[in-house]
Amino acid sequence: MATALISPTPKSRKKLQKRRAPDRSQRLRRAFQLGFLALNLWIGTQFVLFVHYYESGGRGMRVSRPAGVEGWLPIASLMNLKVLLATGHVPPVHPAGMFLLIAFLAISWLLRKSFCAWLCPVGTVSEWLWQLGKRTFHRNWRLPRWLDIPLRSVKYILLGLFLYAVGSMSVPAIQDFLEGPYGLVSDVKMLDFFRFMSVAGAMVLALLVVLSVFVQSFWCRYLCPYGALMGLAALASPLRIRREASLCIDCAKCAKACPALLPVDRLASIRSAECTACLECVAVCPAEGALRMSAPRSRPVPAWMIAATVAVLFLGICGFARWAGYWHTDLPERLYFDLIPHAREFTHP
User: Fold this and answer.
1) What angle do CA 229, 252, 242 make, to 5 degrees?
2) Strands 291-294 and 240-243, bridge-based pairing
3) Domain boundaries, the chain
4) Residue closest to 291 by CA, chosen among 259, 261, 260, 252
5) What does the pLDDT read at residue 242?
6) Which residues does 344 contact at the CB level (< 8 Å), separation at least 6?
7) Inter-residue contact 250 to 264 (CB < 8 Å)
8) Would you state the pLDDT for residue 347?
9) Average pLDDT per run of 10 along the chain, which is 349 residues long?
């Protein structure tokens, strides 16, 4: 009896529908990153001149205090947000930081954690560092899973500690803290950390820079509590990166390009709090319609719409605060002359 040889049926290949036009989302995103980084450098320069004027007894260049520097005071911003929610009144000290926090939370809620990929200057520098490492060594190192998962929890632990500290304070205690000498010059204290950095602080900063060159997004992935807060807000976002399995050709380019190291090529949609809406995965996908950023059962959200929404929310919320008179911390000049030269002497209450 002859044995019939049955050859396996060849696996059918999906037809690749190539894109009609090149993706320019990353050019747009990098323009936003550079613009926001330049804004922060301008604010920093103005703030240094402001502090120098009062430290020198009025002999330097007199400039006004840039309220935007309060964006670098996230704990004070959280405190003020609690006061606003508890009392309905905008606090008089460091209110700009609170409105910046509200703007960034609104951006993250609507557009995933896009603050981190489109605006955050620390995220921008971190991205440059790992890209430098990739160009120099032709790769970035990925931590093993047994180490990666515990380290990713560190930023949430830090966030939890900050939220507990702020949540456990009463409104009068917060007001006493922010309106006391330490709270009034907390922005100067922050500047002094970098101007008069200790050896230990410099070593830690250098270590973070080196690790960021070799390990992709080390600070953002493992240590940043601000990014953790934005990620939690992003969990409620209606937008997701969505993959159309029938159009996907399983090239895995999206997963290789993802800065958050998410398995984009194996999921129907990305729900992770780590997704920053950077659109890197969409940009490298060669198949038309296989990947998109969208809400459920809706059309894809293009990069220009994300950029426009980020700009409208940021400028709109900050513009409202300025228009309503809630942007600046109005302190008598005499108080600045008294406090700023002695800022290093004030210890945390």
Assistant:
1) 50
2) antiparallel
3) 25-51+63-329
4) 252
5) 96
6) 189, 192, 196
7) no
8) 86
9) 42 61 89 98 97 92 94 96 97 97 97 96 97 95 94 97 96 96 96 95 96 96 97 96 93 95 95 95 93 92 96 98 96 94 87
Burial (0-12, 13-18, 19+ Cβ within 10 Å), 302 = middle
* Residue recorded with tokens 């009025």: 58
pTM of the model: 0.92
What SS3 string covers the chain? CCCCCCCCCCCCCCCCCECCCCCCHHHHHHHHHHHHHHHHHHHHHHHHHHHHHHHCCCCCCCCCCCHHHHHHCHHHHHHHHHHHHHHCCCCCCCHHHHHHHHHHHHHHHHHCEHHHHHHCHHHHHHHHHHHHHHHHHCCCECCCHHHHHHHHCHHHHHHHHHHHHHHCCCHHHHHHHHCCHHHHCHHHHHHHHHHCCCHHHHHHHHHHHHHHHHECCHHHHHHCHHHHHHHHHHCCCCCEEEECCCCCCCCCHHHHHCCCCCCHHHCCECCCCCCCCCCHHHHHCCECCCEEEECCCCCCCCHHHHHHHHHHHHHHHHHHHHHCCCCCCCCCHHHHHHHHHHHHHCCCC
Give the tens place of pLDDT for each residue, 69-99. Answer: 999 999 999 999 999 999 999 999 999 999 9
pLDDT of the residue at 15: 65
Count CA atoms closer than 13 A to 1's CA, side-chain side.
Answer: 2
Helix axes 303-323, 95-111, angle to 10 degrees: 160
Find, among 44, 3, 54, 67, the residue nearest to 336 by Cα: 54
Euclidean distance between CA atoms 212 and 215, whole angstroms: 5
Condensed to tens digits (0 to 9), the pLDDT of residues 14-54 reads 666 676 567 889 999 999 999 999 999 999 999 999 999 99
**Which residues on adjacent β-strands are paired with residue 269?**
242
**Rounded distance between C-alpha atoms, residue 103 and residue 97, angstroms:** 10
The whole-angstrom distance between residue 323's C-alpha and the CA centroid of its chain comes to 26
**What gap in Å lies between CA 345 and CA 55, rounded to an integer?**
13
